Structure formats: structure tokens, C-alpha cells
Amino acid sequence: MTRPPVDTRTCLPTLLSRTRAVLFDFDGPVCDLFGGRSTKPVAQEIKEMARQKWSVLDQAVEACEDSHGVLRYLGEMRVRTQDDSLDPTALDAADDIVTRHEYEAVRDAVPAPEIHTAVDALLELGKRLVIVTNNAEGPVREFLEHRGMSGKFEAVCGRDRREPHRMKPDPSSVHCALRRLGGMNPADTVLVGDQITDLQAAASAGVRFLGYSNDDERSGNLRQGGARCVIRAHTELVEACRLPPVSCPRP
């Protein structure tokens, strides 16, 4: 069953009071990377390359029309088969294709509304910030640099080109963030994400979750997946940061 909406004026201050660090997914909560454009052409480019190197692809690879999905399925195919005849350079080439398109996309990527204000409000409260993303680290850092945010995030934990099957919902990027934060207790962190895969990665790592989406269907999916607190805009987060701190016991 889908969880009923929770008043963010109640859940957000409590969430922030228990939080020392905030982990942001990149595409969505920080920026609109592809501006609503489909990544199907990128997925097709990857599959054409992979067919040349591996001949026959898994059905999941062939059916996928999302660039990150194809990348993940290729990684899973390589791990599952352990077939030495599968040229390992195919994974590097696939990651290169996705990364190239991500670099192109960040040039025109639009920051999420009020993300600068939200980031500054969290920093004023002493929260530590990290990006956890399925995107490559390089394009993310380029976006942050161009938008004046590079010094505000302590780390960017992007996908590992050697292990694309470990993208979210696998919790590897979240674990990376916790390490970069000095081995921080997962209970002291919250992940802001707009996808079920973000929610799943947070749950697997023991990190609390804050949903972010102004789309009713996606918000409903997040609640159905177990998200208790979902915001429609960063203004809600900013307002919560400006409220008096809430004192509450640890769960």
C-alpha cells in the first residue's frame, strides 16, 4: 500500500535534527541533466558497440532503452557469465560513451530550483554534503564548478567504470560517501533522491531517505516503496532549516 502523505513541516525538522550529513543524488535533486530528453539514442549507441565486441547480448540488454540501464546490464552480464571470451574493453567503451554524453549534457544542465539556497541553508546548520550518483564523477564535478558549488560538497561518489553493475540500487556509492565522511554512522545521514533506486540504495546502506519530486506519480511510487517524507521542492527543505532545532531521542 502507498503510504499517505506526511506533512513535511513535521517530518523534515525531525529528519534534520538527526542528520549530520546529507547525501544528494545528482540528476534530479541537484540538476535536470538531460532536460527531459530520452537517453534511448545513447543506449542504442552502446548496444551497437557491444554487439561488435560480444556478438550476442542478453535479452535484458537488448530490451533496455536507458543508457545507465544498458551499462548496468552489460556489467551484470559480464559478472554472471564469467566468460573470458567477452572482451572486457567493451565495458570501458560503454562507460566512455555514457560519460561523453554526460559531459555534453552538463553544459546546458539547469540547476534544480532553489538548490543553491538549500545547499547554503544546510551548510549553515553544519551539515556535511556529498553527491552520490550513477553519473560519472567528472561531469558532476564540471557542473558543480560551473555553478559555483564545487567547494560545498566534500566528495562526489559516482559510478565505478570497472563495476557498472554496482550503480544504485546497489549501495556502493552510499558506502563510498560514508567512507569519505570518515566512516560516519549511516544513522546520522540522509539521502535526497527522486528514484526508487535511490530509496533502495539508502535502505540497503542503513541511511535514512528524503524523497524529492514534484511529480504526483513518482512521489506516490516513492511512498509506496517506503519513503515516509517526500518534498515537492527545495523550498520546503530551506524552510525546515530555518525552524528552531528539534530535540528528539535517537530511534
The major beta sheet can be summarized as: 6 strands, parallel
The first-to-last residue Cα distance is 24 Å
Poorly predicted regions are none
Radius of gyration in whole Å, from Cα? Answer: 19 Å
Helix content: 40-55%
The CATH class of the largest domain is Alpha Beta
CATH topology of the largest domain: Rossmann fold
The succession of helices and strands, N to C, reads HEEHHHHEHEHEHEHEHEH
CATH architecture of the largest domain: 3-Layer(aba) Sandwich
Number of E strands? 8
Strand content: 5-15%
> Helical region count?
11
Q: Strand order of the main beta sheet, please? A: 5-4-1-6-7-8
Task: Give structural notes.
With 251 residues, the chain is an alpha/beta fold. The chain folds into two domains: 8-33 and 110-241, Rossmann fold (3-Layer(aba) Sandwich); 40-106. 47% of the residues lie in helices and 11% in strands. The chain has eleven helices and eight strands. The protein has helices spanning 8-17, 40-54, 59-63, 67-81, 89-106, 115-124, 137-146, 172-180, 196-205, 216-224, 234-241, and strands at 21-24, 31-32, 110-111, 128-132, 155-157, 189-193, 208-212, 230-231. A six-stranded parallel β-sheet has the order 5-4-1-6-7-8, with helices on both faces. Strand 7, helix 10 (216-224) and strand 8 form a beta-alpha-beta unit. Helix 2 (40-54) runs parallel beside helix 4 (67-81), helix 2 (40-54) packs antiparallel against helix 5 and helix 6 (115-124) packs parallel to helix 11. The chain is elongated, with a radius of gyration of 19 Å. The mean pLDDT is 93.
